# Entry
Amino acid sequence: INFFKFIYDLRVIFFTDISNNITNLLISFKILPNNIDIILLDLGLPDSSGYKTLQKIIERNNSIPIIVLTGTQNNIIENLVIKAGAQDYLTKEKLNPALITKLINNAIIRFGIINKFKESNDELILKAKKQTEALELISTGIWSMDLVSQKMIWSEEVFKIFKFQTDSLDP
# Structure
């Protein structure tokens, strides 16, 4: 495929205004879903331009880090693409081998860390949901004591077991 260029051991996909378009990029997700480490995306492709270019890619695939390249510096667009999920934003005039190597390495590392946080968060949410469901099923009264404030905390089941109104007394 003529639009792939590889840097070092990374599988980097470049999409620039020269010969590629967003259609090719979206097709490449189907052809090589696990063979792309990072995307260097120009916001000025022949069939898509501006922030919408990034939006189209993220809608289809948010599992590959993206560095956005552009011909002009625009702080509004820069903020939008970073908030949308791009790892970095760089004007083409600032490109040099050392900088792009650093940006690629940092983007891949940062993207991996973000994904680990997302996975951990999803696991915690699932565990909390299962714990809540289990507590609802067993209908056991649970109480705890805040050692700092010396305040007792009772679950609604404890109130029911002792036949107290929920708001009738402070444990």
Remarks:
- Residues 1-11, 15-19 have pLDDT under 50 and may be disordered.
- Residues 7 and 153 are 59 Å apart (CA to CA).
